[in-house]
């Protein structure tokens, strides 16, 4: 509730108002007279300044025109001087030496050109003289370059005799990079002809643009601190601020037009002029380098010049006087007439103050009485505690709200000591210091929090807003405090702070979002787990953590549950800021306000990545144990088959072989011999099955040695030659030169390669022209250098539906076979720390690709420990 200011303030305000009523009209008259006086002085000074600006800008323009004309004069002098000497009738060495000496002397005498060059009709530098810091040097042949692709050569070589080319003014570029220190440059070029009128190249002058800029600055020396030279796009070529220059070359986007847009619209649309706007007084003139050069008087030339440039490029010379400088005459005017106007000002001020003060004392007493009456009435009716104390700390007033809060009656409190009645003993010194500070209003605290004892001894925490009271002489006579009971509020804040600290230090992730799903709070554990700082995710959706592995149905289920005010529990596979995936268990629920409306959503999450990893590891161990148990059972079965079937099969086989020898070549028994041969083939097939089962269930330990894969493959081809011939296969091998050796078991690898070659030969049965290609090469993979062996056929290929099962034991796609061949091959390759993959070959057939490491790795020594233990 607003409180009427104290009488002291009212009196001063009244005095001030009375003072203004007299002072302002008189001051207005004084100001009008002073302004008319100043305007007369200002108009005279500004007229002279505008004329000076126009004159200096014109001088700068003429200096630029003169510099360009002088360079063109030098260029034509060199061309005509060289043409008169008939240098093109000399040998190339004599021509280069003569022109080089001419250029070197010219560069040394003129000291204006960074480079002087003669380029032939193909753009090759025949002669090049570098200024070299004042010591001109003729470059040797090995340093000369071909410039046929540079814009200035391409445009200059197309000119007719007598025509000249003028490039834009920019920074010199060497090797594709801007040269440092910065070197402004203009290029002037003209073609040169022999005595038969045949164009033999161009003469090119690299004019040091710094000379032009210096001459420009010297010509406008009187206004150099505020004169600028800009190109057609508004980029500075010269500026009092060096950081502005060459922005179009140095990647800076600031231009004169962007800095002074209103002024640039006028300057860019007119040739010359002068105008003033809020940005200052502008004087400008346009320079056309080509036109100014063409109109110049060049007395050394035998014929008029023609000019050519990349575009109708122009420069603008601009002077800008800031608004503060336009009115710079004001300080001087004030210095000159300050004494007069100050005397008049003091006279008006003193007279006005004397008249206003005569009414002060009478109105002060009336204002004091009115203020006290209204202030007491206001304090009685507010719903806050109000107490007034004098300088000694005695109670002079307390309102009904304070009495109800403390349980006292007003007649019991007025006149009593505040410290004795309401201040706890441990806070006595603190309150005594506060009351003592009333003697120094600047040090007195306007906001305090103190504990107040009630009648029954209870302590209440009150937040006071203190206002000092003054008498008519301006002395402090007491203090009035308006207080609010914040006991329950402070207790709630402390409880909230403890809850906040608990959430901040929680080992679980805590996230709070608004109803739209935008994050409003995350605790430090969130940053620790996800890697995202809290500031980075504020206002974002939790979807920033999505890995894409949680289905949309799960998210719909989540939102359906929490939107209805329920709770959702589940797991997410999310992605950290560094791209790493992690698992988290989450419980998400809605937060309701007093009206039961959902205001926020609370998610409490736990990083369960390690738990998931351990669960997966346990599952993998269980699968490995089951696989080992299966192999053990198969090993026992294979042993039984070997003991129970091998001996009978060997007896039957030997009997059939003996019978075959006894029958000899008797043609009458041909049918019997055929049956006997079929029986022997079936017995051999059964022996192969028994051998494969024993090999897979009880693999032998490998015996590695350093060997050449080419020899192993050649031996394997010999072992499989019978099958190759049977299927009439055309087999080709390709070995990359210089292949390293591998550390492997030769017998095992021969078994692998012969098995795969036989499989490939059988697969070509559907091909019109059966073919197998074996290619061996070096492969650089993530695990290091390896040998890659591709065995490819042009057969029927691999059915994608069964591709994943081909390495499973006892799975076969043929009418005959145990299905253990590829399983054995895979086991052997894995024993050698290698890999094998089956895939279709383009355009027809299939490939088996094997990768064997070339670096030394201890191959696995086969033999299942569990199976061996059971066999023992």
UniProtKB/TrEMBL annotation:
It catalyses: ATP + protein L-histidine = ADP + protein N-phospho-L-histidine. GO terms for molecular function: ATP binding; phosphorelay sensor kinase activity. Residues 604-631 form a coiled coil. Signal peptide: none annotated. Residues 446-498, 568-620 form the PAC domain. It comes from the Bacteria. Gene3D superfamilies: 1.10.287.130, Histidine kinase-like ATPase, C-terminal domain, PAS domain. Keywords: ATP-binding, Cell membrane, Coiled coil, Kinase, Membrane, Nucleotide-binding, Phosphoprotein, Transferase, Transmembrane, Transmembrane helix, Two-component regulatory system. GO terms for biological process: regulation of DNA-templated transcription. Its EC number is 2.7.13.3. Residues 371-442, 495-541 form the PAS domain. The chain crosses the membrane at residues 20-39, 338-360. NCBIfam families: sensory_box (TIGR00229). This is histidine kinase. The lineage of its organism: Bacteria, Pseudomonadati, Pseudomonadota, Gammaproteobacteria, sulfur-oxidizing symbionts.
């Amino acid at each position: 509730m607003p409180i009427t200011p104290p009488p002291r303030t009212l009196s001063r305000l009244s005095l001030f108002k009375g003072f203004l009523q007299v002072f302002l009209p008189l001051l207005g008259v004084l100001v009008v007279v002073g302004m008319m006086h100043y305007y007369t002085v200002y108009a005279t000074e500004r007229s002279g300044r505008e004329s000076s600006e126009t004159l200096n800008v014109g001088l700068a323009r003429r200096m630029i025109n003169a510099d360009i004309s002088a360079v063109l004069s030098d260029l034509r002098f060199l061309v005509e001087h060289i043409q008169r000497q008939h240098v093109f009738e000399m040998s190339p060495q004599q021509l280069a030496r003569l022109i080089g000496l001419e250029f070197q002397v010219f560069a040394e005498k003129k000291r204006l050109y960074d480079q002087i060059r003669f380029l032939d009709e193909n753009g090759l530098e025949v002669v090049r003289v570098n200024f070299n810091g004042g010591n001109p040097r003729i470059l040797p042949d090995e340093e000369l370059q071909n410039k046929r692709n540079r814009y200035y050569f391409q445009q200059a070589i197309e000119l007719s005799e007598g025509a000249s080319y003028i490039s834009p003014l920019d920074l010199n570029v060497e090797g594709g990079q801007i040269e440092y220190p910065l070197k402004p440059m203009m290029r002037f070029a003209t073609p040169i002809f022999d005595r038969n009128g045949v164009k033999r190249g161009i003469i090119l002058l690299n004019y040091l643009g710094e000379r032009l800029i210096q001459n420009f600055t010297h010509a406008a020396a009187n206004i150099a601190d505020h004169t600028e030279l800009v190109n057609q796009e508004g980029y500075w070529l010269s500026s009092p601020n060096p950081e502005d220059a060459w922005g179009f070359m140095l990647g800076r986007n600031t231009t004169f037009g962007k800095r002074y847009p209103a002024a640039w619209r006028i300057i860019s649309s007119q040739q010359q002029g002068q105008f003033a706007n809020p940005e200052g007084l502008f004087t400008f003139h346009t320079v056309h380098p080509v036109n100014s050069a063409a109109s110049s008087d060049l007395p050394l030339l035998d014929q008029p010049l023609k000019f050519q440039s990349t575009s109708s490029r122009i420069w603008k010379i601009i002077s800008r006087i800031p608004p503060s400088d336009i009115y710079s005459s004001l300080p001087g005017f004030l210095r000159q007439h300050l004494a007069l106007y100050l005397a008049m000002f003091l006279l008006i001020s003193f007279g006005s103050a004397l008249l206003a003060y005569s009414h002060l004392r009478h109105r002060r007493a009336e204002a004091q009485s009115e203020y006290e009456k209204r202030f007491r009435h206001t304090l009685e009716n507010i719903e806050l505690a109000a107490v007034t104390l004098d300088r000694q700390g005695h109670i002079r007033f307390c309102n009904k709200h304070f009495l109800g809060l403390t349980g006292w009656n007003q007649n019991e409190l007025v006149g009593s000591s505040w410290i004795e009645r309401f201040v706890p003993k441990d806070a006595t010194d603190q309150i005594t210091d506060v009351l003592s500070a009333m003697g120094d209003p600047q040090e007195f605290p306007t906001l305090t929090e103190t504990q107040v004892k009630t009648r029954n001894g209870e302590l209440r925490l009150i937040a006071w807003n203190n206002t000092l009271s003054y008498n008519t002489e301006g002395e402090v006579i007491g203090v009035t405090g308006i207080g609010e009971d914040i006991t329950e509020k402070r207790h709630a804040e402390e409880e909230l702070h403890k809850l906040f600290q608990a959430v901040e230090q929680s080992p679980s992730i805590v996230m709070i979002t608004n109803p739209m799903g935008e994050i409003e709070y995350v605790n430090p554990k969130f940053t620790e787990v996800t890697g995202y700082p809290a500031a980075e995710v504020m206002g974002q959706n939790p979807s920033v953590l999505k890995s894409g592995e949680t289905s949309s149905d799960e998210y719909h289920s989540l939102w359906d549950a929490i939107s209805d005010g329920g709770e959702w529990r589940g797991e997410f596979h999310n992605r950290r800021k560094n791209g790493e995936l992690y698992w988290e268990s989450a419980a998400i629920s809605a937060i309701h306000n007093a009206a039961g409306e959902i205001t926020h959503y609370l998610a409490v999450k736990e990083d369960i990545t390690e738990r998931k990893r351990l669960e997966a590891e346990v599952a993998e161990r269980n699968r490995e144990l089951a696989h080992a148990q299966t192999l053990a059972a198969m090993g026992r079965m294979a042993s039984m088959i070997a003991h129970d079937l091998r001996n009978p099969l060997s007896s039957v086989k030997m009997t059939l072989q003996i019978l075959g020898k006894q029958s000899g070549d008797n043609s009458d028994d041909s049918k019997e011999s055929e049956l006997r041969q079929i029986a022997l083939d079936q017995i051999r097939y059964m022996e192969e099955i028994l051998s494969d089962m024993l090999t897979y269930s009880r693999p032998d330990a490998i015996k590695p040695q350093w060997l050449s894969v080419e020899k192993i493959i050649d031996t394997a081809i010999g072992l499989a030659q019978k099958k190759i011939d049977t299927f009439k296969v055309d087999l080709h091998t390709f070995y990359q030169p210089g292949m390293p050796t591998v550390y492997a078991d030769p017998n095992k690898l021969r078994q692998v390669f012969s098995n795969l070659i036989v499989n490939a030969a059988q697969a070509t049965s559907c091909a019109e022209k059966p073919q197998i290609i074996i290619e061996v090469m070096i492969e650089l993979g993530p695990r290091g250098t390896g040998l890659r062996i591709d065995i490819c056929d042009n057969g029927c290929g691999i059915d994608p539906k069964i591709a994943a099962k081909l390495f499973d034991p006892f799975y076969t796609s043929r009418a005959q076979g145990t299905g253990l061949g590829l399983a054995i091959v895979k086991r052997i390759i894995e024993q050698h720390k290698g890999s094998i993959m089956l895939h279709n070959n383009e355009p027809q057939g299939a490939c088996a690709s094997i990768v064997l490491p070339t670096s030394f790795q201890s191959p696995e020594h086969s033999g299942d420990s569990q199976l061996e233990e059971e066999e023992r």
